[in-house]
Amino acid sequence: MSNPPPKNAVVLVSGGMDSAVVLAMAREQGFTAFALSVDYGQRHASELQAAERVANALGARAHKTVHVDLRSIGGSALTADIDVPDHGGAGIPVTYVPARNTIMLSVALGWAEVLGACDIFCGVNAVDYSGYPDCRPEFIAAFERLANLATKAAVEGARLRVHAPLIAMSKADIVAEGMRLGVDFAATVSCYNADDEGHACRHCDACRLRADGFSAAGVPDPTRYR
Fold first, then answer.
1. How does residue 110 score in pLDDT terms, banded at 50, 70 and 90?
2. What does the CA dihedral 170, 172, 178, 183 come to, rounded to 10 degrees?
3. Is 42 exposed, middle or buried (0-12, 13-18, 19+ CB in 10 A)?
4. Cα–Cα distances in Å, from 63 out to 15, 95, 207?
5. Nearest residue to 51 via CA among 202, 2, 42
6. For residue 88, what pLDDT is reported?
7. Most buried by CB count within 10 Å: which residue of 39, 68, 187, 197?
8. How far apart (Å, rounded) are the C-alpha atoms in residues 193 and 171?
9. Which residues have C-beta within 8 Å of that of residue 145, sequence separation ≥ 6?
């Protein structure tokens, strides 16, 4: 009996806790994971270094970093000279990066076509999050429809799927799932304002949501703070 062909998937890996859990979930589901990170001109490189650690630790077949210069258009505290606020405040916060998830998923879609992969995984979450419009279920569903209209693979009969397994999970649930899967959260960097060594600021939205998740899950917070 011949072995079934491998199930290839592209997994977006930012270096943060959510994408690390998603990579572990994809591997548990039997996918051969190709980790993709995007250097988009974010404030610090420590999250990209974390992405490399996470990809290696969680068994990605390969890890690719693609460069997209979103700093050239700015418009966000993560890509322009705008201070990262201690709290997100009302409305969509200034840490929202215009079109970031659309661009990242598009790059992932291109690599998936090259690999012959029908599955893309991303770590967006619409429960404990900062209110970004491109983290909502409607966005993921719309992008999947686009993927199945815009690609040679889909026109020739492949069904492309965009998986967002964390989208309806609380941060505490994500922590618990990561612990079950053996994710080393200490190796991840979630902070919007981390230093060059990946030490977190403790004050930004990402730090607050992360710390609250560990507290609610009853798990000691392994984050390295400065």
1. very high
2. 120
3. buried
4. 12, 26, 26
5. 42
6. 57
7. 187
8. 20
9. none
Reading the block at residue 171, the tokens are 């941060």
Question: What backbone torsions phi and psi does residue 209 show, to the nearest 5 degrees?
Answer: -65, -40
Give the domain ranges of the chain. 7-217
Mean pLDDT value across the chain: 94
- For residues 165, 168, 174, 178, the Cα torsion angle rounded to the nearest 10 degrees is -20
- The domain made up of 7-217 has a fold known as Rossmann fold (3.40.50)
Helix or strand holding residue 51 (H, E): helix 46-57
Res 22: pLDDT: 98
List pLDDT tens digits, range 48-61. 999 999 999 999 99
Percent of the chain residues past pLDDT 70, beyond the cut: 96
Answer yes or no: is pLDDT of 173 > 70: yes
Angstrom distance (rounded) from CA 215 to CA 218: 5
